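Recall the central idea of this unit: under ordinary conditions, the amino acid sequence of a chain determines the structure it adopts. In this exercise we apply that idea directly, starting from the sequence alone.
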Amino acid sequence: MIKLISIVISTYNWPEALSACIISLINQDDKNFEIIIADDGSSQNTHKIINEFKQSTSIVIQHIFQEDLGFRAGTIRNKATVASKGDYLIFLDGDCIVRPNFISRHRQLAEKGFWIPGNRILLSQSYTSKILSKRILVHTKPTFLLLAEWLKGNINRILPLVYLPFNYFRYFKPKQWQKAMTCNLAVWKADFITVNGFDEQFEGWGYEDSDLVIRLIHYGIKRKEGRFAVPVLHLWHNQNDRSQHDSNYQRLMERLKNPSFIRAEKGIDQYL
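Accordingly, the structure predicted from this sequence is:
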């Protein structure tokens, strides 16, 4: 049984999106969790937003910051995890908005020996702008109203909002690593530490999350599907710099072929 869930939110210089993300978390029907902001070098505007939330909610919020030296999501997530007090981790991006039952559904899905990938619904550029400028509480909208947004082209798909009971189909692909992203991924903290967390050799955009789940699979931790239970609404943004894609992908393929590779070479043990 989970004692405490730690939500690790990665962010970089988008306080408006982070604010929408935190508001959706504060309004969860399950409040037995803490928030750890993994800040990859944001300016004072983000610091200000976080401090305001710290003063206005009873939910514990920690702000873990590192200097802006380029995209180092794995590094700041490792540091944030060390600061966490929960025994179960949910990694979330600061440009994702969650439904009110996101935490409670993840808690129901949690099972020893498994990691849980959720999925996402992409919002259009215009709808994202409208949500942030008018502070629309999109996480509270019932499914039928989001269906209307889908019909208008404001969201890319509606099926992830359909709830299916937690049944046998979730165990169909225990070793599938594809399409698992840390904008919505849950893992037991003990398992995360055993594989040495994120490998910080993956600098720049690309595949640090795939590397993590491949190593979890090598260790014997299986995939349990989170689709049709814990979707997130992903705000539109420009693509990140992908100049490191090829080198990161090559490293990933090498590790995929080596089932004995379990622990990150440059991981969380630096901070423990």
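The longest strand covers residues 5-11.
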